[in-house]
Specification:
Largest sheet: 6 strands, mixed
CATH topology: Nuclear Transport Factor 2, Chain: A
Distance between the termini: 93 Å
CATH architecture: Roll
Structural class: alpha+beta
Helix content: 25-40%
Number of domains: 1
Order of helices and strands: HHHEEHEEEE
Organism: Flagellimonas flava
Shape: globular
InterPro entries: DUF4440 (IPR027843), NTF2-like_dom_sf (IPR032710)
Strand order of the largest sheet: 2-1-6-5-4-3
Keywords: Signal
Protein name: DUF4440 domain-containing protein
CATH class: Alpha Beta
Pfam families: DUF4440
């Protein structure tokens, strides 16, 4: 009797363990099919436009409140400093374009955009490299970090 009760108890224990195991929960992605185009437009069109036109309202929408930047000289900046900078510093170049070389969009709502900025002034081209991290918050992409390096004139 004890042996039978023990076998039944072990079988119930095994059955209860098996019924509790569930498939791991898969988080639904907050990324949409349109996000690549939105990010490309933000980095190639909107962000340069904000600096070119000294548009603090546009830059304010692009940068997250926690935005930080490291420039080519190693100086740290934040959102407030960038907004103040574009108020008093008009762009002095003839044209500018940004060439995206890498764009990764993760399912958790984080994007990495890296590439080369091309500054043209009096037929002289200067380039720089940058990396940018953006986070999708409440349906909108916000830049939270940028790093610029390698500013150099092209031969």
């Amino acid at each position: 009797m004890k042996k039978t009760a023990m076998i039944v108890l072990v079988m119930l224990l095994i059955a209860s363990c098996q019924s509790k195991s569930k498939e791991p929960k898969i988080l639904s992605s907050i990324i949409t099919a349109e996000d690549e185009g939105i990010l490309r437009n933000l980095k190639e069109v909107q962000w340069p436009k904000a600096y070119r036109e000294q548009d603090t309202m546009l830059l304010d929408r692009i940068l997250g409140e926690d935005f930080q930047m490291i420039d080519a000289g190693g100086t740290w900046s934040n959102k407030a400093k960038e907004l103040e900078y574009i108020k008093v510093n008009a762009m002095q170049h003839d044209s500018f374009y940004y060439e995206i070389k890498r764009m990764d969009i993760l399912d958790n709502g984080t994007a990495l955009i890296c590439g080369t900025g091309h500054i043209l002034n009096d037929s002289v081209e200067t380039i720089y490299q940058s990396s940018n991290i953006l986070i999708k918050r409440d349906g909108f992409w916000k830049a939270v970090a940028s790093h610029v390096s390698g500013i150099k004139p092209m031969p």
